[in-house]
């Protein structure tokens, strides 16, 4: 088993301590941070994501793996920044204004991060202006919005309108999801993509950004 | 063949995960197909039954099933919401609640903690959990130690009224000078597949808090007895059928294949594994993160959660 396979394996098992030790071991062997990230951490989360999609692992297990991956990424981040390694894309995500539910958004964020995206997580109950502002200042490639309530999902359209008004609608892709959201609703409000669940969200994001 | 009668099912198991799995299998196999208010037009009707579930050892290990719709850190925060009122400050004012669906305020209409610990009636606040503790401390065999959640004025017009209706408890002598606290909860409606497990982890933590309160007040040893959970409508929503049934053509296995493909140990976690995630799950949730994130949480509630966090960190506490 290569060190990358070992890292990927420990990410899958959600073993943060082993991931930390293996990432440090790989660095001591002078393996580059981006190789460790993509061939080890991201590969591990890709397998978890695929298993999740195929009903082979449970949601809390995905998040336990995400913790292990985050521990590894934490070690690599300064090195990646030094080398100016670009992520797959920058995604601003959040639960829409008025909505305090954040489970779906958190899982989607973790899977996107696990796939190699940089995530700017604005949290829950995010004001429409903050989505637009962050998309602009963070130079986002993607805006991901989640809603669990029919009363709050209407705010998603306001964000899309805000992106248009700010003149950045063409440079950013918008994905929406959440229990009451449908493909028809995404089409109706002019979103670029609809994710029926968190795992599908990664596929949709990659497709929209041609990755 | 469905007769038009809602099936009545019973599950009795030693631990929460065993009861949870058995209940899912029972409702899936024997539940009636019926529509709910939350179904989307394209969803098949839900599977539904009236179900009584008894768990002999609410804190028996392993206590945590791995199948629920959140992470361990999120579950820790939910427990604090129910037991210590972490999110009572997310409830909107009464004048907004009574506007029902006309209200533009998207904050919550209730929390279980709010209704159990601060039930409002005739302009007064009643702490019903204190009442249960007082009543059972004075007279353990009483049949009147109960707390309700339903508010007949506020709840009927809202879109999402409380599922939990009643908490009832009674003490039995343990033959050694102490007591065994038995608790029942009654639920109007319940999402079995994505809410039952988290509800029960929180409500059995409340059960322990009540038992501790009785012990302190009565000066007697109080152990936890069986927990009984009764739902008028325990259901698996039609929108979850894809997850339950899988899709063999796409290589997606069914929920039951996933269960059967693993040992029980691989489907569950013990409290020792879960404990560090309750403190901080490393991805933004857990009690530490909750205290950092929720700046507007009232100070008295914050103190309860800080105490709880200390207990968990000191290893003096089974999550």
Number of domains of chain A: 2
The portion of residues forming beta strands of chain B comes to 15-25%
Instruction: Kindly report how far apart the N and C termini of chain B lie.
Output: 43 Å
Mean of pLDDT of chain B = 95
The chain-level structural class of chain B is alpha+beta
Report on the biggest sheet of chain B: 7 strands, mixed
Within the CATH hierarchy, at the fold level, what is the topology of chain B? Thymidylate Synthase, Chain A
The coarse silhouette of chain A is: globular
Number of domains of chain B: 1
Element-by-element helix/strand order of chain A: HHHHEHEHEHHEHEH
Amount of beta strand of chain A: 5-15%
Descriptive labels:
heterodimer; A: 211 residues; alpha/beta; Methyltransferase, Methionine Synthase (B12-binding Domains), Chain A, domain 1; Rossmann fold; 2 domains; 5-stranded parallel sheet; 10 helices; 59% helix; globular; B: 319 residues; alpha+beta; Thymidylate Synthase, Chain A; 7-stranded mixed sheet; two-stranded antiparallel ribbon; 12 helices; 11 strands; 38% helix
Structural write-up:
- Chain A has 211 residues and is of the alpha/beta class.
- Chain A has two domains: 3-82, Methionine synthase domain (Methyltransferase, Methionine Synthase (B12-binding Domains), Chain A, domain 1, Orthogonal Bundle), CATH 1.10.1240; 90-208, Rossmann fold, CATH 3.40.50.280.
- In chain A, 59% of the residues lie in helices and 11% in strands.
- Chain A has ten helices and five strands; from the N terminus they run H-H-H-H-E-H-E-H-E-H-H-E-H-E-H.
- Chain A has helices spanning 3-13, 16-28, 33-53, 59-82, 103-114, 128-137, 150-153, 155-165, 183-189, 198-208; strands at residues 90-95, 118-121, 142-146, 173-177, 193-195.
- In chain A, helix 1 packs across helix 4 (59-82), helix 2 (16-28) runs parallel beside helix 4 (59-82) and helix 6 packs parallel to helix 8.
- The longest helix of chain A has 24 residues, at 59-82.
- The radius of gyration of chain A is 17 Å and the shape is globular.
- Chain B is 38% helix and 22% strand.
- Chain B has 319 residues and is of the alpha+beta class.
- In chain B, the strands form three sheets. In chain B, strands 1, 2, 3, 7, 8, 9 and 10 form a seven-stranded mixed sheet that branches.
- In chain B, helix 2 (72-84) crosses helix 6 (192-218).
- Chain B has a single domain (8-243), classed as 2-Layer Sandwich (Thymidylate Synthase, Chain A), CATH 3.30.572.
- The longest helix of chain B has 27 residues, at 192-218.
- The model of chain B has no long low-confidence stretch (mean pLDDT 95).
- Classes of the chains: A alpha/beta (211), B alpha+beta (319).
